[in-house]
Amino acid sequence: MAKNPKLTVLYEKLRGQSFEIDRETMSIGRRETADIRLVDGSVSGHHADIIRTDQDGEICYILRDNDSTNGTRVNNEPVTERLLCDSDLITFGNVEVLFDSGDNRSSSSQFTHTIDLGNTELNTATTQTLSNFNPMAETEKKKNTVVSIAVIAIAALLGVGVLALAVKVLFN
User: Which residues contact 46 (CB under 8 A, 6 or more apart)?
Assistant: First the structure.
């Protein structure tokens, strides 16, 4: 017998939370009244719904976005409504969750999801991006600051020299 599907949070701040999908319709959002509550500023109050339905004698789950501010993506593709498959990666705003259908048959099969990393507008990651890979960056920053100060000092001295020369010409 298949167990109920669940959503497992992968997002750093909420990682490890798991929610069983045990009703016909379950709301997902930031509000206290949400069936699946994801407390993060990127998640709308009533962000999306998961709806259990019967298609050709099989129980299926549909994810429906509720015109959320930051959108809903499945496997890195924006969606308004989508039939969920086992191991789909769902993103509500910035919060990533994994859909586990609970279907024992799919756990024995091997599969791969391909996500297009070439489209940077839709690209998200489960880890934070490092802002600087250069170990010498701090040293270079200090050098640039010293050079900038030197250029300003030379310009100031030249300005004073030009001013002194102008005074000398005018008053001699």
Answer: 27, 29, 31, 34, 66
Whether residue 117 contacts residue 129, with contact meaning beta carbons closer than 8 Å, is answered with no
Q: How many CB atoms lie within 10 A of CB 61?
A: 19
Number of H helices, E strands in the chain: 2, 11
Structural tokens at position 158: 């030249």
Please write the tens of the pLDDT for every residue from 43-78.
Answer: 999 999 999 999 888 899 999 999 999 999 999 999
pTM for the model: 0.59
Strand, helix or coil at 79?
strand
Distance CA 81, CA 68 (A): 12
Strand duo 77-79 + 89-92: pairing: unpaired
